[in-house]
Amino acid sequence: MEILETIGIDISKKVIDMHLYKRDIHQQFENNTKGFKQMVKWLEKNNDVPRENLMFAMEHTGIYCYNLSLFLSKEGFNYVIIPGLEIKQSMGMTRGKNDKADAKRIALYAYEKRYRLKRHVQSSESIVKLKRLFSLRERMVKQRAGYKMSLKEQSEILLRKDNKLLLKTQEVLIKCLTKEINIIEKEIESIVTEDDNLRSQFELIITIKGVGKQTALYMIVFTEGFKKFDCWRKFASYCGIAPFPNTSGSSVRGKTKVSHLANKKLKSLLDLCAKSSIQYNEEMKLYYKKRIELGKNKMSTINIIRNKILARIFAVINRKSPYVNLMKYAA
């Protein structure tokens, strides 16, 4: 299937700006079902390229692009959702910004990269629900941590009899947030349990020593049921644990290091898994001690263990069988 025309779409809360690359024409529509239908009619009038040779391209704008992506998926259009940073870095030196210009730049980027871009596959309903619940849970956990810290500091300095309302209000908020977080976690477990595929993946991942329930759930959500990434090395790069060289010519000889462009939440979870494995997994403990005795860097060794754990997670999913600890069978 050859892509002959690209349509760049800049999405805001109320409207979408659309630009046809080859025809170099622009039009604006409402960001709702009525607007989407008008968009299709306008496209049929102003474009002679068959539907299968068209590609819509839009910047990832979270909930604002969700309804449009659902509509395009149902109508059978090819479309891609591109990270904003990827488009921004492809622009080079630019001056000024508006929605019309952004739609044109997205269309240009999609046309130049049309042979490399892969058609977006709509996530399952369970994955979409899990993503939203995890996002809400993360915000609530941060809010609770903030209240706990301020309450602790104020309790140590202020007299309770003079600040009853101040301290009591924060205590109530902490209890309320804890209760709601527990409800969200139960709902997450319920969604995973009801979906046979997600439940099977979850049970396989937690057979790996050092990998907990939270990490297993986050892995399932961010890989979209292990459909978004076909290789653990690509996912390691996404998590920010894949090392990259830092050299140029004969003068620059920097250290090989990980990139700061990463999913920091997954990186922190894999870091906790690695440290837990060093403590409780005999194989990882021996590996860590051996490298340290050889004078290797501690953080470099921990990062290697992060990658080992990630490779094992993908391995059990691809094999569809639990992890087997071969260490206990060693002579």
TrEMBL record:
BP term (GO), one: DNA transposition
Domain Transposase IS110-like N-terminal: 7-152
Coiled coil as UniProt keyword: yes
Coiled coil: 167-194
One MF term in the entry's GO annotations: transposase activity
Superkingdom in the source lineage: Bacteria
Domain Transposase IS116/IS110/IS902 C-terminal, first and last residues per copy: 203-289
Alphabetical UniProt keywords: Coiled coil
PANTHER family xref list: PUTATIVE TRANSPOSASE FOR IS117-RELATED (PTHR33055:SF3), TRANSPOSASE FOR INSERTION SEQUENCE ELEMENT IS1111A (PTHR33055)
Record's protein name: Transposase
Lineage, broadest ranks: Bacteria, Pseudomonadati, Bacteroidota, Flavobacteriia, Flavobacteriales
